[in-house]
Amino acid sequence: MTGMKGPGIFLAQFLGDAAPFDTLAGLAEWAAGLGYVGVQIPCDPRLIDLRLAAESKGYCDDLRGGLAKFGIEPTELSTHLQGQLVAVHPAYDVLFDGFAPAELHGKPAARQQWAVEQVKLAAKASSNLGLSAHATFSGALAWPYVYPWPQRPAGLIEEAFAELARRWTPILDAFDEAGVDCAFELHPGEDLFDGATWERFLAGVNDHPRARILFDPSHYVLQQLDYLDFIDRYHDRIACFHVKDAEFNPTGRSGVYGGYDNWIDRAGRFRSLGDGQVDFISIFSKMAQYGYDGWAVLEWECALKRAEDGAREGAPFIRDHIIHLTDHPFDDFASSGIERDAIRSLLGLSPHP
């Protein structure tokens, strides 16, 4: 039977200017040495020529071949930064300019057009790489109004989500043409950050078959959402999985909003795997129960621990939590082997006519 794949590792937090973290080959060899068998690749020009990957199957075959030398597969491509720029409220224009090429800074319309093209290219590149899912962010128009004070005017949120759907529907259509799922990481700062906002968006894109979820329980801990119930509700839309830990320790001083403190002082903060409060045994059990057959990918972020230690500890943690699905019932040894007529007899019924 098929089942969850892994362990994989998201390379975004480890990409750097010094070897081995400055090239895809270097990162792949490093990851393999830690026990990973897959890498989630951010669409950064230092790691992948996105346009060439969208246009050339040969380039993608070579990329796969280069990873295979180290026993590594690509799990998904990621356009988190580009997806963020599909929808940006003007309050964040300056801060998000850094996600785009310098020539687009101060040009929000051109920046948005570039972002849409990048995500569409990622759909084709994912197809050429033989990938079934892609990881991204939704961007945000309504986020500055997340708290209803001052009172939100009627129709504000509805129009924001209608516009978000208008922007993403052609992109989702491009993913459909490529045969790839587009998985949104539900994340504060995006307009899609919980189940309620996901449902708003899904209705806006008419239940588009390629609109999927990247499940990351750490963001639900920090919002105090029930991440196990989330899986029960939305498991049929989960296409990617970030294995990321977090903790929430509220006090009389600070809670969900964090008091503008730095990460290390916030009530809710991300932690290395095993150091937080996420119930991964139950998560992996539910994912297995519902037949999730995608990748389990470490996304490392921690306010305390060194990245190198988190990466080293992540591979065995994920590997030990993956449940390999059984191909027969556990109580087969006690099977009675009774035929249907005998079953009807046990129920006091006449043999089947």
From TrEMBL:
Going by the entry's taxonomy, the superkingdom of the source organism is recorded as Bacteria
A Pfam family that this protein carries is: AP_endonuc_2
Q: Which InterPro entries does the entry link to?
A: IolE/XylAMocC-like, Xyl_isomerase-like_sf, Xyl_isomerase-like_TIM-brl
Q: Does the keyword Isomerase apply?
A: yes
Where are the membrane-spanning stretches? none
Assigned keywords, A-Z: Isomerase
- Domain Xylose isomerase-like TIM barrel span(s) in chain numbering: 29-320
This protein is called Sugar phosphate isomerase/epimerase
